[in-house]
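# step 3/5: fold
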Amino acid sequence: MESRVDRSLGAYARTMFAQLTWSGTVRQAFSQVADIVYAVVSLGIMGTMLHNWPNSHGYWRQTDVWAYVLIAAVYLPLTVRRRAPLTVLVSTAACTLCYVTLGYYHVVVVCGLGLAFYTVAALRPRRVVATCAAGSLLVLLWGTRLAEPGIGPQSVVFVTVTVAVLWVTGDRSRRLAERGERLAVLSEQLRLEQEEKAQRAVMAERMRIARELHDVIAHHVSAISVQTGLAGYVFTSDPRTAREALGTISGSAHEAMEEMRRMLVVLREGAERAQEGASDLNAAPGLGRLEQLARRVQAAGVPVDLRITGAPFALPPGADLCVYRVIQEALTNVMKHAPTANASVTVHYDEAAVHVLVSDDGQESIPVATTAEHAGHGLIGMRERAGIYGGTVTAGPGPQGGFEVALTVPVSRDK
């Protein structure tokens, strides 16, 4: 299952992507409306200034209809400045150049050309912006010749500083926008990675459940099948043996139901809830129930010699279940493939690991040719379980005949 950190990262990525997408759409619509409002309002203000600005000394050409037409040609294209910044700047610069060349009051067109240049600086590469900056500055410097006497130098400094400030602020805005785009791309990548990770976690959980179901069902169903056959065979000739077989069937079915119930609780309510409610359920299988397992297999007709060597100690719950399931699967294979054999189970504890050897002396043990076929669930499941805890499983013919399954699970012990 996904960890809380993984789920949090996935939720954060999805939230960030949704916010960026939504805010981008809203920002684009708001920017378009703002550009239209700015162009219309600026045209009205500048037209009013041009009409009311005093020209008693005749510094500028008398205002006429062409002045208003050129002002409109300067400001109205700004409504689409973000869609075609270079086209708007060229158009605005050309109209501004015509306007100041004709000698009209020049101040009213400075803001329009300045905004058009800022847009290019914010949306286009620096090499393009440099050319546009030079062109815009030349047009504005040409307009400073219309300044009132005595303030010409100040006008030159003003337009030069204005172009420089617009260039710097536009460039910073462009870099911030690029950073935002990279953040959006990274957020999308993170979202996709989290989805992929979640899918892998789901597949891993499905495989774990499949292994658990296989181990639980295969063993108990094998025992029930053997005992059912025995009970049917001796039902009239040996009622006592039949009753014992039926008792074994009942016990196997009951234990299988308990383990299935425990798994369903974990699936429905989560591992934490299952642990909180563990008092209502039998404990998960482990080495503490090894003798019960051996008796059940022996009741199915396969004698089991169980040996515990070394100094036994408590294993972590996961490792304990792993060892138990491997032994259970190995004995199930003996019941299936060598029902007339004798089995032995040796569990050895040492300082750093638990070693298990399950063997039988049957002549009908799993042939090498069929191990690959059987490994589809059994042997592969054993190896996957052991691999989770850093352990290893080997399986093959024993040196004295029969078949052997060996398991080693490293266990760190607190001194």
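# step 4/5: annotate
Residues 1-5, 273-282, 365-376 have pLDDT under 50 and may be disordered.
# step 5/5: archive (pending)
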